[in-house]
Every structure is written in C-alpha cells, then in structure tokens.
Design brief:
It is a single chain. This protein is of the alpha/beta class. The chain has one domain. The chain contains three helices and six strands; from the N terminus they run E-H-E-E-E-E-E-H-H. The strands form two sheets. The chain has a four-stranded parallel beta sheet, covered by helices on one side. Strands 3-5 form a two-stranded parallel ribbon. Helix 1 links the parallel strand 1 and strand 2.
Length: 114
C-alpha cells in the first residue's frame, strides 16, 4: 500500500517480487503520481485515484483491478486521500478477508496445541 510516490513504489515492489517468483495477493494505491501497470504476479489491485491515473493490466495479468475515481468526492483530495476513514475501513475489510482465506487453508495454532 502506498500514497502518491508511495503508490508508485507499491507497484515497483510488486514488480520486484515478481522477479523473485513471489505472488502478491493485494496492492492498494492512494493517488498514484503516474500511470501504473499491474504485474502478472498480483492477484488484486485497488487504486484510489483522481481522474487520470487508472492502473492497467500488464502482460499476463489475470487478477482484478478496481480503479476508484475520487474526482467527484468533494471531501477527498490528493493531500488527504490516505487519511479518509471510509477508505481505510474498506481496505482493512479486504485485508481481513484475504487473511481469513489464508487461515482457512491451514490449521490454527490453537488447533495444533490441542
């Protein structure tokens, strides 16, 4: 996850992880400074942007991209987008859902002790 140049860096980090053979479950970008391309190792991208910076699919990308244009939101701008509680809640719910999905495939620590 990242805001502005940090959003750009989040995609760059996913690209680096691709070179290492590592999958990325989720990338979240808040107000990227440049147009971004999702690498093929990413399962899901959520991009909160303003008008002209949607994330596009890179070669081999099979995941999902949710480009959320916030241009019409009167209370959100590039300087506060990463501070908006309703966006936080949405992202936290997505992360919790991903963690729940991962945990369902493994025995919980408590089950291992019993």
């Amino acid at each position: 996850m990242g805001h502005s140049s940090g959003a750009d860096a989040a995609i760059s980090m996913a690209e680096k992880m691709k070179t290492l053979g590592a999958p990325v479950a989720l990338v979240v970008t808040f107000g990227p400074a440049i147009d971004l391309v999702a690498p093929s190792n990413v399962s899901q991208v959520i991009n909160y942007y303003f008008g002209s910076a949607p994330v596009t699919k890179g070669p081999g990308f099979r995941g999902t991209i949710s480009n959320v244009d916030l241009s019409g939101a009167a209370d959100i701008n590039h300087l506060n987008v990463e501070k908006i509680d309703r966006l936080h809640a949405s992202v936290i719910a997505k992360v919790q859902a991903l963690l729940g999905h991962v945990r369902q495939g493994r025995a919980s620590p408590a089950a291992a002790v019993q």
